[in-house]
Amino acid sequence: MDNFRFSNAPTSIKLLATTLFCILGLTYISLLVHIWIDTQMKPSLIIEAYGKMEYIELSDHAVKYLPYYAFYLFLLPIVMFMFTSYSEKLKSFFATFTFVIIIIDIGSMWLIPYVWQGFAYILWLAGICLGLTFLTLFVLNLYDIWLRKTKV
Q: 31-57 burial by CB neighbour count: b if 16+ within 10 A, else e?
């Protein structure tokens, strides 16, 4: 991965990467609108929504959201982040942190009805972390693609 960097890529590749990020951003915004409609992003409404769910409904949500987060929203930005000029520590952080938060997010959804309703606050916090992670990856990737000084 040391040979290819988006900052050194041709303009066509940079434009492709940028449009992909913008499409992913719109996808993430549509997910946030969906979550807002369901829960208004309030822990009390999260408890109300998930606290009454049976295991089949939770399974449906997990099947829907797990690949949605892991593959559609975060895999591409993280893989692209591996081709930036940022430090290996920062790359390692995003390679692991994001997927740990996804597991916490989905796991806390399951724990609300069966263990303790207070896991709604963990779900809420994990959602905030996921949003901030996506935003950070978006900004860092685009900064590296378009503004970082390239080495020839």
A: beeebeeebeeebeebbebbeebeeee
How many other CB atoms are there within 10 angstroms of residue 133's CB atom? 20
Domain containing residue 112 = 6-146
| Per-residue model confidence as pLDDT tens digits over 27-81 | 989 989 998 998 999 999 999 999 999 999 999 999 988 888 888 789 889 999 9
Candidates 67, 75, 80; CA nearest to 139 is 80
- The answer to whether residue 33 is domain-embedded is yes
Please report the sign of the dihedral spanned by the C-alpha atoms of residue 6, residue 11, residue 13, residue 14.
positive
Burial class (CB in 10 A: 0-12, 13-18, 19+), 105: buried
Residue 129 belongs to a domain? yes
Residue 83 and residue 17 in contact, taking contact as beta carbons nearer than 8 Å: no
Q: pLDDT tens across 101-146, in order?
A: 999 999 999 999 999 999 999 999 999 999 999 999 999 999 999 9
Q: Classify residue 152: in a domain, yes or no.
A: no
User: Does a structural domain hold residue 18?
Assistant: yes
